[in-house]
Amino acid sequence: MSTPAPVVELRGVRKQFGRGGVLALEGIDLEVGAGEFVSLIGPSGCGKSTLLRIVGDLTDPTSGEVVVNGKTARQARIDRDYGIVFQDAVLYDWRTVAKNISLPLEMLGWERGRRTSRVEEMLELVELTGFESHHPWQLSGGMQQRVSIARALSFDPALLLMDEPFGSLDEMTRERLNMELLRIWEQAASTIVFVTHSIAEAVFLSTRVVVMSPRPGRIASVVPIDLGRPRTVETREDPRFFELVTEVRELLRAGGAELAAPEEVEA
Amino acid sequence: MCYGWGMLRRAVVFVAVLAGLVALYEGYKWIWESAGFGWPFEVNDRTMPHTWDIVGQLFEPSRRNGPLLIEVLWDAALFTAKEAAVGFALGAVAGFLIAVLLVHFSFLRRGILPYIVASQTVPILAIAPMVVVWLGGRGLPSWFPVSVIAAYLTFFPVTINALRGLESADPRALELMDSYAAGRWAVLWKLRVPASLPYLFAAFKISATACVVGAIIGELPASIQDGLGGAILNFNQYYASSPESLWATNLIAALLGIAFFLVVVGVERLVVRAAPEELI
């Protein structure tokens, strides 16, 4: 099996806030291959969100190298290689669902007809057909987040960055959206870097789980997830699933991390 | 159905409040007159004419064999409305552009904002004659300086609120635009401006009445006779013999302000989709 070209390469990434300020990340080396689903997990303050923002060029590393698709992170951003999903949907209230999804397409200068047909495809993908002319406040939290995912995927970005996208949803909605995300990931053949507080979520979704430890944020361990695909409701009852969950939990504890509750929100 | 009831209820409340205000005015007048109170001022038909006399005056000839007062005031109100509307447009555009400028060049903000605030502490009556001198006799219509004076009162609330509104965009929404490598214009038109609309309309509501006041006051130094300002000046001279005329003129001026306000509310309903149901 040939290794696919890495989409993300991080070498010696270090991030310090302000001069002499908090050291958020140190010595981060990581590669994410095309088509991978990599989760970053760790307690609050381990810098996992900061790391995601560095990959997406929303903040600069203090030192170290960030290469995305063989380019600098900035160039990748200018080339619109990123789709981003935040913890909150961050939809524009004054736009309908359809208009929210087509926002990045407008930025890319797609003409109206092409935008409309793509929006229809995306609505189908996230199972929101029929809601195109609704406004965000008319949707539930889970539906809003699906719109946000559709928006992020609408322009086929090389890399999908997700920062605790299901963190503010209830457990039931979260598990359903996990399934949907896997289906979308397989259908869209995208590469995903996913930040989460939830061990179960990380294990269930990922091809690899990156366990981080705090102060300063470092990569404590990388756990390959060898669960079969497609992953289904039964996967969560698979003994191997429990073994992997336990392994990640112990790595987190060994990293000096007081285990964060899944619903805890990172400050 | 609910909509119909809401309208009816609103109409009933409106009439009830109006009746209450009239009753308050007439009640005060009656008590002070019959008791002969001299404080804070002596009440009689000259200082406080009856409300029905004020309204009745509208349907009396404005002078011997002349048109009815309401016809004269209607024409004056239209004239002042034109000045105020042009002033509102000038002021709103200028106020918004200043805000856009200050949002994008934050180093300008600290330097310029104090002068913008200072501009509003100078009484309009002190500025107005200069504006009339500067802009008079340049081939512009004679009422144009009045519009500029109205604009002077309009721009300030627009600038202050637009500044607030343009910065009200969610920081993550701005990051989202960053992730699309969106340029300044795209961020402005697709995010900052729509996010600022509720703030802008709050400012427009203040400015809607301010521009009418600005137009009326501006007519005085500009010596414009055709508007409500001219009418107020005129009827002020005849107050002793016909106080109702001045009161009636003030009534029309107030109605003009309300009309401007309602136009803004109507436009807001059309433009701001996410606005809450009840705005007035």
What does this structure look like?
The complex is a heterodimer of chains A (267) and B (280). With 267 residues, chain A is α/β, with parallel strands linked by helices. Helices cover 34% and strands 24% of the residues of chain A. Chain A contains nine helices and ten strands. Chain A has helices at residues 48-55, 73-78, 97-101, 103-107, 112-125, 141-153, 171-188, 199-205, 239-254; strands at 6-16, 23-33, 37-41, 63-68, 71-72, 82-85, 159-163, 191-196, 208-213, 218-224. The longest helix of chain A has 18 residues, at 171-188. Chain B is mostly helical. Chain B has two domains: 1-48, no CATH class; 61-279, Orthogonal Bundle (MetI-like fold), CATH 1.10.3720. Helix content of chain B is 76%, strand content 0%. Mean pLDDT of chain B is 91; it is low at 275-280. At the A-B interface, strand 6 and helix 4 of A face helix 7 and helix 8 of B.
CATH superfamily heading of the largest domain in chain B:
MetI-like
What's the N-to-C terminus distance of chain A? Answer: 41 Å
How helical, in percent, are the residues of chain B?
over 70%
Series of secondary-structure elements of chain B, N-terminal to C-terminal: HHHHHHHHHH
Question: How many individual helices of chain A?
Answer: 9
Q: State Rg of chain A.
A: 18 Å
List unreliable stretches of 5+ residues of chain A: 259-267
Shape of chain A: globular
- Span between N and C termini of chain B? 21 Å
Count of helical regions of chain B: 10
**Class from helix and strand fractions of chain A:** alpha/beta
Mind telling me the C-alpha Rg of chain B? 23 Å
Low-confidence stretches of chain B: 275-280
- Cross-sheet strand order for the largest sheet of chain A: 6-7-8-3-9-10
The CATH architecture assignment of the largest domain in chain B turns out to be Orthogonal Bundle
**What proportion strand of chain A?**
15-25%
State the assembly state of the protein chains. Answer: heterodimer
The coarse overall form of chain B would be globular
